[in-house]
């Protein structure tokens, strides 16, 4: 079966291509090789050099039409990631993520390709799930205010008693509450894909990736993730700089686990389909299942790399949320996927791997 992977030359996409090839799929990659991801304009080496590569932009309808020929299922990873530099990035994010998705879905409708695996993100939830020790499950906290953050008051508080809330695992049924430009575009992608599925009778598995790390993460770009920032600092002999107090909770999941989950989802939409049948978008959290703090990640990377210990700065980015960690039970129940790479092993591998490329 032929699978089209948009963004297949990128960090996660490269690993997905390898996982799909290992699962016996015929893979075609569509990638624009955008300069902030591929500054040298050359796709990174992949383990399987025999896949079909198309250099083109998902926002170009004729290019997508050609790339879809003979394809049975699409794995859509092409996107701008990260919080961005400032709101001047809005046209770039909306163009790459939302216009690109709309062009792709329209082309899939024309071609009669009705199976999609969409790379979504945990950022769609905004703040994660919380509970108050006295009052039980809490409503989603409002966006944090600069005055509180300036004063070092980082924890969301109960609206009834004012005490700090305890973070809990977020289920897929949680409401969507995007709190950054990137998050807003990922929610829009899910809505576009859901509408396409209903109108065309197609199926979508939307994979809400949590904080992905591992070999091949890009470095020296403001659009990279926190693990990449820490790794880049260590490579330059600098201490990783940890924002806030370092106690922000995330779910760090290794890129090979994410690739395996994505390949499993491709198999699911191709074979038995996702629960709900035709016209359905089914969301799945993709996380390790074990929350860690940002400070823990920085310390583990510094220790594995043999570099300077992290520095906790108290600085913040207003678009960041405090805690968001996944419940990945649905993807285990329905697709039989569970993360396999231990945190310590994954961090040690990431610390030792060359930055910005995927080892062959």
Which features characterize this protein?
about 20% strand; about 350 residues; seven-stranded parallel beta sheet; globular; four-stranded mixed beta sheet
Compute the average pLDDT.
90
Low-confidence stretches: none
How is the main sheet built? 7 strands, parallel
Distance between the termini: 24 Å
Radius of gyration: 20 Å
Please state the overall shape, judged from the principal axes of the Cα atoms: globular
Helicity, in percent? 25-40%
Read across the widest sheet, the strand sequence of neighbours is: 3-2-1-4-5-9-14
Strand content: 15-25%
* Total beta-strand segments: 17
Query: How many alpha or pi helices?
Result: 10
The sequence of SSEs as H and E is EHEEHEHEEEHEHEEHEEEHEEHEEHH
Question: What is this structure, in a nutshell?
Answer:
This protein is α/β, with parallel strands linked by helices and 360 residues long. The protein has helices at residues 11-22, 61-67, 90-111, 146-150, 181-200, 226-235, 255-270, 294-305, 329-335, 343-352, and strands at 2-6, 26-31, 52-55, 73-76, 115-121, 129-132, 136-137, 166-170, 203-209, 211-213, 241-242, 249-250, 252-254, 280-286, 292-293, 311-312, 325-326. The mean pLDDT is 90.
Describe, in plain words, how this protein is organized in 3D.
- This protein is an alpha/beta fold and 360 residues long.
- Helix content is 34%, strand content 19%.
- It has helices at residues 11-22, 61-67, 90-111, 146-150, 181-200, 226-235, 255-270, 294-305, 329-335, 343-352; strands at residues 2-6, 26-31, 52-55, 73-76, 115-121, 129-132, 136-137, 166-170, 203-209, 211-213, 241-242, 249-250, 252-254, 280-286, 292-293, 311-312, 325-326.
- It has a seven-stranded parallel β-sheet with strand order 3-2-1-4-5-9-14, with helices on both faces.
- Strand 4 (73-76), helix 3 (90-111) and strand 5 (115-121) form a beta-alpha-beta unit.
């Amino acid at each position: 079966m032929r699978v089209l992977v948009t963004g297949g030359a990128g960090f996660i996409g490269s690993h997905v291509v390898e996982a799909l090839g290992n699962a016996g799929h015929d893979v075609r990659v569509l990638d624009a090789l955008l300069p902030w991801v591929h500054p040298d304009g050359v796709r990174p080496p992949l383990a399987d050099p025999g896949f079909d590569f198309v250099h083109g932009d998902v926002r170009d309808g004729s290019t997508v039409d050609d790339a879809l020929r003979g394809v049975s299922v699409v794995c859509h990873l092409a996107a701008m990631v990260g919080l961005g530099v400032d709101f001047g990035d809005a046209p770039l994010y909306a163009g790459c993520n939302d216009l690109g998705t709309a062009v792709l879905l329209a082309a899939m409708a024309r071609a009669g390709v009705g199976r999609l695996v969409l790379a979504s993100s945990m950022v769609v939830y905004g703040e994660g799930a919380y509970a108050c020790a006295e009052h039980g499950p809490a409503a989603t906290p409002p966006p944090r205010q600069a005055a509180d953050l300036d004063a070092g008051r980082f924890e969301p508080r109960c609206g009834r008693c004012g005490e700090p809330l305890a973070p809990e695992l977020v289920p897929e049924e949680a409401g969507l509450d995007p709190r950054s430009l990137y998050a807003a575009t990922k929610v829009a992608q899910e809505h576009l894909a859901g509408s396409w599925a209903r109108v065309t009778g197609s199926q979508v598995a939307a994979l809400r990736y949590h904080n992905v790390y591992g070999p091949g993460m890009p470095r020296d770009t403001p659009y990279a993730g926190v693990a990449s920032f820490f790794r880049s600092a260590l490579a330059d002999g600098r201490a990783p700089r940890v924002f806030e107090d370092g106690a922000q909770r995330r779910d760090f999941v290794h890129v090979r686990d994410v690739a395996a989950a994505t390949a499993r989802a491709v198999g699911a939409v191709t074979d038995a389909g996702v629960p709900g049948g035709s016209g359905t978008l089914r969301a799945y959290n993709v996380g390790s299942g074990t929350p860690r703090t940002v400070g823990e990640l920085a310390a583990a990377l510094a220790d594995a790399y043999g570099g300077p210990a992290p520095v906790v700065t108290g600085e913040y980015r207003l678009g960041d949320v405090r805690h968001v960690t996944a419940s990945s039970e649905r993807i285990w129940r329905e697709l039989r996927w569970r993360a396999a790479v231990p945190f310590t092993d994954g961090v040690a591998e990431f610390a030792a791997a060359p930055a910005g490329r995927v080892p062959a």
